[in-house]
Amino acid sequence: MATEQPDIHFIGTHTRYSSWTSRVEAVLEYFEIPHTRQFIKLSDVKTVSPSGYVPFLECRSLGGTRICDSLAICEFLAESNPELPLWPRDRQLRALARSATAQMHSGFSAIRNSFSTNFLAHYTGNVPISEEAHKEILKMLSLWDTARKGTKERLAALGEVDEGFLFGGFSIADAFFWPVLTRFRTYGLPIDAASEDALAWMAKMWNDPVFKRLTHRYYEQAKDPETRIEHYDDIFRGRDDIQYGQFPEDWTFSVPGK
């Protein structure tokens, strides 16, 4: 007897380099949404997506309709699984979560353009941070702080449990900030301006079992040389004042000064 395939087929590039693909993967995995997946080399994108857009979902029940763009994909998943809290149930927190997610999706260009995604890499030394990137780092830390403070107040007023994610329980918002959180580790971006609430959220993400499992996948991908994207590795090559290495898989996040 043939096994029925999940309704969703997910296609993207290898997640250790792809912030867009890893966002969707985090949502699918955290909420245990049934799906099949296919990760491809960056050089092979045009063979599966003539437009060059990845990631995308194929929805089998909609005749193989393709949904592109990580935010559009996550909205589709939320609509398709109303029983799951992909967005907060509370209307106020849901609005704030959508606002924060949209800011990450369309903004913070200095951080994204200066510090490409490489989940495993470890840069030390004189990593350059432009004035604009520094401003965005402070804005990012402030956004996380504001989200957590407002969420704690709102959930306390509602008498509901706060799970410690940006807007209470894990949501699309946390998935969207996961890749940029890892950039703080990869490039040693400063977090001295982070509040206790922001640091607690960072620790929550790094220590979550789902993200530990996803991180393990990144290391497994790295064992296959076919997944390597050379121009994303050692992006400061040739500079003697910057060292390039790789974090061990058993690395743990620790709050500075504690």
Explain what this protein looks like in three dimensions.
This protein is an alpha+beta fold and 258 residues long. It folds into two domains: 8-80, Glutaredoxin (3-Layer(aba) Sandwich); 91-246, Glutathione S-transferase Yfyf (Class Pi), Chain A, domain 2 (Up-down Bundle), CATH 1.20.1050. Helices cover 46% and strands 11% of the residues. It contains nine helices and six strands. The chain has helices at residues 19-30, 45-48, 70-80, 91-106, 109-114, 131-158, 172-187, 196-207, 209-222; strands at 8-13, 36-40, 56-59, 65-68, 121-125, 242-246. The strands form two sheets. The chain has a four-stranded mixed β-sheet. Strand 1, helix 1 and strand 2 (36-40) form a beta-alpha-beta unit. Helix 4 (91-106) runs antiparallel to helix 6 (131-158). The longest helix has 28 residues, at 131-158. The protein is globular, with a radius of gyration of 19 Å.
